[in-house]
Write a structure and sequence with these properties.
By secondary structure, this protein is α+β, with helices and mostly antiparallel strands. It is 32% helix and 15% strand. The chain has a 4-stranded antiparallel beta sheet, with helices on both faces. Strand 2 and strand 3 form a beta hairpin. The chain starts with 18 loop residues before the first strand and ends in a 15-residue tail after the last helix. 33% of the residues are buried.
Length: 186
Amino acid sequence: MNSALFVQKRKSHMELGEIYFWTATINQWMKLLEGHDYKQVIIKCLEHLSMQNKIEVFAVVIMPNHIHLIWRIKEINGKEKPHISFLKHTAHQFKKLLFQESASRLDAYQVSAANKQYEFWQRDSLAVHLYSREVAFQKLDYIHNNPLSERWQLAKNPGEYLHSSAAFYEEDNCNYSFLKDLRAEF
């Protein structure tokens, strides 16, 4: 019997206008996002999609090998949903950065596929619909506490971690122009 039939896939589908907790992971859990320039690619892409009124971002954390967002996909970006545009654009920028830095490091993301040479994001992004205030704020706490976990230990308290929206919620310190307040939604 084919055991692949029983492998559960993560749900990545998002409806327009709804708020979701979304996770995207770097291929093979490599720590591509440790470097500042790679984090900036994420931030710039979120800024652009937000300015184009394609998304609303309520929370973000950029970890060394994955990101978590709470966001709303507002409208289609050309022929695709903005999360697809986000993944494509950031992958293209990652490729450019890696090519400039080290071709050997770029090789780690090489794949044998007919439609692409490199794959930076795993294909199984997770989208969880935030259907209630309780669920939304549980995910918000999870995002902001992720850098403090035993595995990461990137900060002592959530507001200290610079690549997160925690300071916005805890100290009213808005490091990112695209952030909207989730508390106004529920």
